[in-house]
Amino acid sequence: GPLTLLGPAPGAPSCPHGPALLFVKTSQGKEEGRRFYACSACRDRKDCNFFQWEDEKVSETRLAAREEYNRNHQPPFTHRQNVDRYKNFILLPLSKRRFCQECQQLLLPAEWEKHLDHQFLCDITTAQLKSPSQLLYPLENKKTNAQYLFADRSCQFLLNLLIDLGFRRVLSVGTPRLHEMIQSRVSQEEEFSVRSLLLDIDFRYSQFYTEDEFCHYNMFNHHFFGGEAARETCRKFLYEENGERVIMVTDPPFGGLVEALASSFKKLMAMWKETEKEGHDNKEMPMFWIFPYFFESRILDFFPSFSMMDYQVDYDNHALYKHGKTGRRQSPVRIFTNLTPSMIVLPEEEGYRFCTVCQRYVSSGNQHCEICNSCTSKDGRRWKHCVLCKKCVKPSWFHCNNCNCCTLQKHSCEKTDIGCFVCGKAGHKRSACPSLS
Ligand code: SAH
Ligand code: ZN
Ligand code: ZN
Ligand code: ZN
Ligand code: ZN
């Protein structure tokens, strides 16, 4: 059966990615077998094979070996060392600025020798240093850490939206490109007063940002690798001085466990809440959670105050694209937010329009259904209403009297009660989910 996350457990053992998470196999909603700990960040055993039964007795020798293993699997330089290296690097003349593509590392001249048979880039400009997401190659490990970078248009849109909404601080959780866009505008425009703090598990970014700009962070277990000092940096950043309002923007890997993400985001929200005693009352920290539309119900389970916006977030290197009728690529990725939907103004020049009944901007193809009394399309195409299902469904679906619901024309009329972990539908497992391939 599928794995169920029992959550971050107090006293959990640690792997190189911080405290492990507690899981159990379930069948028909019932726990089956022994509970176990596994790595929070890596879905693939090849990337981190940490495993321990919950009730397992671990010997002192094994504990010591594990601690040593965890130490050895930390990055070769500390963040502090990387900051110092950067300071030295920018003092070098262009001709001496090298970046090793194999080690993904800025090189100081004394280190060249060790990297002679590696591929490297020369003449690294200041502009390149200000766009690390272009210099570093996107991590491509499908299960663990696939990095999908925002297309420039989407990133501009997000930033302008935040500014128009009056936010002056952005907690960028797994959004290095948004962070980078903010940082480079800060250095170019005197008037620009937005600040950003990047939280990401990709430690390569510590080569380009100080401890006040980047925290090495695992969003599946809310682990700050930099310990209490990094946690304090984050806390300070969330403290809204001089009325500078904070918003969190996150774009997690889609293969990730929604419940683990939600648990961490709630902790970040709590951190924000604790920074100010009176002001926040019952408010939540404003947040944009960028995720595919087929996760809508999962996200709303954890954050009932959220709603999904129709805006299609575009990426430079995304495998999830389908080509729509118009020839424009259709992205399944949306913005989930706890801000009032009517405040999220979507660009009319890209075809979005305001529905006065729904009080939100919707895709041009998203027709208001009189029966549902809502703009019901999730994927941007025009959906059709099924009177038997009493809801709108995808245009390609038809009502199957056998299954007593709308589904694809081609389907086997078999009932399985185990739904796919990703989309919740029956008939396939998470690994074969059509919405991910
Ligand atoms: N669209 C974003 C990038 C999203 S890709 C942009 O352009 O800025 C997902 C991001 O989450 C990557 O930066 C990746 O390094 C980060 N990430 C993946 N797993 C993570 C984890 N466990 N904790 C924190 N960040 C993680
Ligand atoms: Zn691990
Ligand atoms: Zn409507
Ligand atoms: Zn309808
Ligand atoms: Zn139907």
TrEMBL record:
Presence of keyword S-adenosyl-L-methionine: yes
SMART domains according to UniProt: ZnF_C2HC
Annotated GO CC locations: cytoplasm; nucleolus
Keywords: Cytoplasm, Metal-binding, Methyltransferase, S-adenosyl-L-methionine, Transferase, Zinc, Zinc-finger
Domain CCHC-type stretches: 420-435
Transmembrane segments: none
Subcellular location: Cytoplasm
GO MF, one example: zinc ion binding
Domain GRF-type residues, every copy: 15-57
Protein name: ZCHC4 protein
Organism of derivation: Platysteira castanea
